[in-house]
UniProtKB/TrEMBL annotation:
<dbReference type="InterPro" id="IPR045864">
    <property type="entry name" value="aa-tRNA-synth_II/BPL/LPL"/>
</dbReference>
<dbReference type="InterPro" id="IPR004522">
    <property type="entry name" value="Asn-tRNA-ligase"/>
</dbReference>
<keyword id="KW-0030">Aminoacyl-tRNA synthetase</keyword>
<keyword id="KW-0067">ATP-binding</keyword>
<keyword id="KW-0436">Ligase</keyword>
<feature type="domain" description="Aminoacyl-transfer RNA synthetases class-II family profile">
    <location>
        <begin position="136"/>
        <end position="454"/>
    </location>
</feature>
<dbReference type="GO" id="GO:0004816">
    <property type="term" value="F:asparagine-tRNA ligase activity"/>
</dbReference>
<dbReference type="Pfam" id="PF01336">
    <property type="entry name" value="tRNA_anti-codon"/>
</dbReference>
<dbReference type="InterPro" id="IPR002312">
    <property type="entry name" value="Asp/Asn-tRNA-synth_IIb"/>
</dbReference>
<dbReference type="InterPro" id="IPR004365">
    <property type="entry name" value="NA-bd_OB_tRNA"/>
</dbReference>
<keyword id="KW-0963">Cytoplasm</keyword>
<keyword id="KW-0648">Protein biosynthesis</keyword>
<comment type="similarity">
    <text>Belongs to the class-II aminoacyl-tRNA synthetase family.</text>
</comment>
<comment type="subunit">
    <text>Homodimer.</text>
</comment>
<keyword id="KW-0547">Nucleotide-binding</keyword>
<dbReference type="InterPro" id="IPR004364">
    <property type="entry name" value="Aa-tRNA-synt_II"/>
</dbReference>
<protein>
    <recommendedName>
        <fullName>Asparagine--tRNA ligase</fullName>
        <ecNumber>6.1.1.22</ecNumber>
    </recommendedName>
</protein>
Length: 464
């Protein structure tokens, strides 16, 4: 019987010693002397490495010549209590097979630390670093926790389309999807591009949000969520924006703004708690390496109620703030991230949920407040991040909704399917969108959103 491969994670946790084991992974380093060589191996199952000890009498130097940084190896041996400090167990190697050598001179991940900027250029190899291994494992854990939370709370996962025929929500910042020739598209008689000859017989784009379709599903299934890629062609070259990012959008029939806030707060706190409980080693590494306040901040967000206030109240606070802002604040203007971060990091020192924004700066579908000036919007603002969630109670009244659409030049004929939910059995409902990468950014304590997705897309960059 051939020996089954064990992961490094399994071996490090094992109490079952003095047995034969097989481990496969990538060499992080090799060092030693003329009597013994230590081969340090990581296989991605954990941030930790296992040490294999190769005695020179069994492994003359030429048998180990390809066992260098970055090489893929299979090591067979006996799992024993470690003689050295720093690890509980190690492998006394009996066989070392090089599955794939790595040219030591050319290997881009050298022992000395490499900047995050440089690692972005070699994003195909950066998962092999401790930092990106940790980030990717945490990203996975958070994605799993999203599904677990909603499943436990009676929500159904709905797959909304990625190619969309309506550009209602994100007019002007969408990526076009077409099979027409770029340099010689077919023209209509008036000289404009004839999209009836395009693949779908009309103009189509990559979606900016699954919300509108999510609302349709919520008006049948009650509680739903989407979790998929979204695309925005806004030219925001910031540490908080990606052109391709993942969004989680729950939508709940019969919920109003208050319940929407309760859901957002409980959901975010559960996700942070899940990471604290399940990603301890990776978080400890990131806390040590990048941000000594990380764990304290995560516990604080998980355990303390968020501050809730209206946009109008926030504007009052900002106007009387001692701090000078680059952008002046006045009722009716959209808040900039400097304002959001002042409220969260300086004034309240905890996450903030801002509600009831002026209708002019929010989307057409948000429910109008009784004063006719504000809408039942809510943004959740996080320390170090700014806006992490945007959402609202939706306008369920057909007349009010179509009036808003006309005022905002949203073409109603494109959205008759959306309006049908307001014609047939309309009901209050509410939802929000959580930017998944902003969540991963918060939980990992990384400072640039390009470092929390495997292959980031941003202006002038679509490598890999
Ligand atoms: O506030 P947004 O634009 O809201 C919506 O799209 C609604 N349809 C959501 C809903 O009510 N169902 O985006 C939601 C969140 C933001 O709060 C932010 O976290 C994230 O998506 N986000 C981005 N993340 C990374 N890069 C970008 N360019 C982002 N734009 C928005
Ligand atoms: Mg928003």
């Amino acid at each position: 019987m051939s020996l089954k491969r064990s992961t490094v994670k399994e071996l490090l946790a094992s109490q079952d010693l003095d047995r034969e084991v097989l481990v496969k992974g990538w060499v992080r380093s090799r060092r030693g002397n003329k009597y013994v060589q230590f081969i340090i191996v990581n296989d991605g199952s954990t941030i930790h490495t296992i040490q294999a000890v190769a005695a020179a009498e069994n492994f003359p130097e030429e048998t180990l010549k390809d066992v260098g940084n970055g090489a893929a190896v299979a090591i067979r041996g006996t799992l024993v209590a470690s003689q050295g400090k720093g690890q509980a167990v190690e492998i006394q190697a009996t066989e070392v097979i090089v599955l794939g050598a790595a040219d030591a001179e050319a290997y881009p991940l050298q022992k000395k630390a490499t900047s995050l900027e440089h690692l972005r250029d070699i994003a195909h190899l950066r998962p092999r670093t401790n930092t990106f291994g940790a980030v990717l494992r945490i990203r996975h854990a958070l994605a799993f926790a999203v599904h677990q939370y909603f499943n436990d709370h009676g929500f159904y996962y709905v797959h909304t389309p990625i190619i969309t025929g309506s550009d209602a929500e994100g007019a002007g910042q969408m990526f076009r999807v077409t099979t027409l020739s770029a340099d010689k598209p077919p023209l209509a008689e008036d000289g404009s591009v004839d999209y009836t000859q395009d693949f779908f017989g009309k103009q189509t784009n990559l979606t900016v949000s699954g919300q509108l379709e999510g609302e349709l599903a919520a008006m049948a299934l009650g509680s739903i969520y989407t979790f998929g890629p979204t695309f925005r062609a806004e030219n925001s070259n910031t540490a908080r924006h990606l052109a391709e990012f993942w969004m989680i959008e729950p939508e709940v029939a019969f919920n109003e703004l208050e319940e929407n806030m309760d859901l957002a707060e409980d959901f975010l706190q559960s996700l942070v708690k899940y990471a604290l409980a399940n990603c301890a080693d990776d978080l400890a590494f990131l806390n040590e390496q990048y941000d000594k306040e990380l764990l304290a901040r995560l516990h604080s967000v998980a355990d303390n109620a968020f501050q809730r206030l209206t946009y109008t109240e926030a504007v009052e606070i900002l106007k009387s703030a001692k701090q000078k802002f680059e952008f002046p604040v006045d009722w009716g203007t959209d808040l900039q991230s400097e304002h959001e971060r002042y409220l969260v990091e300086k004034h309240f020192k905890k996450p903030v949920i801002l509600t009831n924004y002026p209708k002019e700066i929010k989307a057409f579908y948000m429910k109008l407040d009784d004063d006719g000036r504000t809408v039942r919007a809510m943004d959740v603002l996080f320390p170090g991040i700014g806006e992490i969630i945007g959402g609202s109670q939706r306008e369920e009244d057909y007349t009010k909704l179509t009036t808003r659409m006309a005022e905002m030049n949203v073409p109603a004929h494109d959205l008759d399917w959306y309006l049908d939910t307001r014609r047939f059995g309309t009901a209050p409902h509410a939802g929000f969108g959580l930017g998944f990468e902003r969540l991963v950014l918060f939980v990992t304590g990384m400072s640039n959103i390009r470092d929390v997705i495997p292959f980031p897309r941003y202006p002038k960059n679509a490598a890999f």
